[in-house]
Amino acid sequence: MFDSELPSDARDDRGGLAKVRGRSEVNAAFGAVHGDTRIARIFERGSFRLRFPRGRGCEAVLINTGGGITGGDRLDVSLELGVGATVVATSQAAEKLYRSDGAAALIALRARLGDASRLMWLPQESILFDGAIVQRLLEIEMPATAKVTAAEILTLGRTAHGERITNASWRDRWRIIRDGRLLLAENVRIDGAISELMERPALGAGARCLATLVHVAPDAEARLGDVRDALAAVEGAAAASAWNGMLVARFAGTETHKTRAAVAAAVVAATGDAMPRAWSC
């Protein structure tokens, strides 16, 4: 089961809970009916909305009407996929993570998958601004018969403007549980003068954009050759490995659009499917 408690460091200096400025939530459940995936339940609160453009399959587009995320905001997305359901979830545009006044912004995706279901979690990039304090969580529970493709991109400042991150905090936690057993556990923490840190050869070698792709499926390991071939044709640093029914790819680049292109190429190679239409808007 998922841990519903806030991270221990999401507290103020006196040990109390950090001030929540805005609370937004999307909770949606999907089921398969005669081979088509349909919405079974949806709840929306605050600035989060989920929209479903007509066309290919069940594509769920997350919209943040608040115009960005700042310190103290909390945004929760919960998705439940029934037996045989297929959902492609993405975001309308890049998410801006603004300067904080001291409290952390908390962003969480929690998903539970049924047998033979499939989730593609492919939001567009998150842009970290100077002074931001952000904690992000991804937790997925799935059976061995399900498939998950999850990719997230982090841009360190608006690269086109030459911005630098002189003081910020980024914490990212991923957990994937398959058949009740922990498959993937990953924690990433970057604090302080992030742009300066990323210039170190052993850390980022000048990277301004980072991304991770995880593909969990019965044939994930068989896709490794195709993904590596796709990465060989893109710009920027990228590498992929596969084991235990899971494929993981990492990306580091200096320009967001090139990292986006690399991630998209890897997703297509891993899944055989096209990217969400929102990515081309």
Protein architecture, described:
This protein has 281 residues and is mainly beta. A hairpin with a 2-residue loop joins strand 16 and strand 17. The strands form two sheets. Strands 3, 4, 6, 7, 9, 10, 12, 15, 16 and 17 form a ten-stranded mixed sheet that branches. The chain is 11% helix and 46% strand. It is globular, with a radius of gyration of 18 Å. It has one domain.
Summary tags:
single chain; 281 residues; globular; 10-stranded mixed β-sheet; 7-stranded mixed β-sheet; disordered N terminus; mainly beta
Helix-strand sequence: EEEEEEEEEEEEEEHEHEEH
Q: Shape, please?
A: globular
**Helix count, per DSSP?**
3
Number of domains: 1
Residues in β-strands, percent: over 45%
Largest sheet: 10 strands, mixed
Rg estimate, integer Å: 18 Å
Span of the ends, CA to CA: 36 Å
Please provide the count of β strands. Answer: 17
Helix content: 10-25%
Low-confidence stretches: 1-17
Q: Structural class of the helix and strand makeup?
A: mainly beta
- Mean pLDDT equals 90
The gist of it:
By secondary structure, the chain is mostly beta strands. The protein contains 3 helices and 17 strands. The strands form 2 sheets. Strands 3, 4, 6, 7, 9, 10, 12, 15, 16 and 17 form a 10-stranded mixed sheet that branches. A 7-stranded mixed sheet has the order 2-1-5-8-11-13-14, with no helix packed on it.
Write the layout of secondary structure elements.
Blueprint: E1 23-33, E2 36-45, E3 48-51, E4 59-64, E5 74-81, E6 86-91, E7 95-97, E8 105-113, E9 118-121, E10 126-128, E11 133-142, E12 147-156, E13 168-178, E14 181-192, H1 194-198, E15 209-216, H2 224-232, E16 237-243, E17 246-253, H3 256-271
Parallel strand pairs: 1-5, 4-6, 5-8, 6-9, 7-10, 8-11, 9-12, 10-12, 11-13
Antiparallel strand pairs: 1-2, 3-4, 12-15, 13-14, 15-17, 16-17
Helix pairs in contact: 2-3
